[in-house]
Design brief:
- This protein is 81% helix and 0% strand.
- By secondary structure, it is an all-alpha fold.
- The protein starts with a helix and ends with a helix.
Length: 171
């Protein structure tokens, strides 16, 4: 049975809502069903050369919708599996430092501890309060009964001393 283009459109429009109702439970989403039915129309309308072989155009249209719906489900499932695989791979990746990095960090920590031991008590204490205990310069100044500017100088002095010792160790 060969259908003229206007008859194809009339057939599609007459069954459009039923096609959407047919695809929606398969896909679980009415919006996706609308997209599938639209794609089915484009395919159905584009098959002008094979119209003579279509004996039941309505059944053929339903088959196109069903096939497109299942193709979409497979594609979405495949994308989810790929995303889950990538997420699993990320979870399995060890973000901990390797032995070399651990050794280097251990050496740096040893150098910084030695550098802090070389500092005067007041400088070391201001640095520890600021960098290790998280106190503000204002809190350090109040606790040590010094000005905020002096607290900043003490912390800066300690930082420079530690940086110098690390630099010397790397030379």
């Amino acid at each position: 049975m060969s259908l003229p283009p206007s008859s194809k459109l009339d057939l599609y429009l007459a069954h459009r809502n039923a096609l959407v109702d047919y695809a929606a439970p398969i896909l679980g989403c009415r919006a996706q069903a609308e997209d599938v039915v639209q794609e089915a129309w484009l395919r159905f309308n584009g098959r002008a050369d094979e119209d003579a072989r279509i004996n039941q155009p309505v059944g053929y249209l339903y088959r196109i919708v069903r096939n497109l719906a299942f193709d979409l489900i497979r594609r979405i499932s495949s994308e989810r599996q790929q995303a889950n695989g990538e997420r699993l791979l990320d979870e399995l990746t060890d973000h901990n430092p390797g032995p070399e990095q651990q050794a280097a960090s251990h050496d740096e920590l040893r150098i910084v501890n030695a550098a802090l031991a070389e500092l005067p008590e007041r400088v070391r204490r201001a640095f520890e309060m600021h960098r290790l205990e998280g106190h503000t310069l204002q809190h350090i100044a109040a606790a040590m009964n010094i000005s905020v500017g002096l607290a900043h100088q003490l912390v800066h002095q300690a930082l420079c001393h530690c940086a110098d010792r690390l630099e010397q160790a790397n030379d």
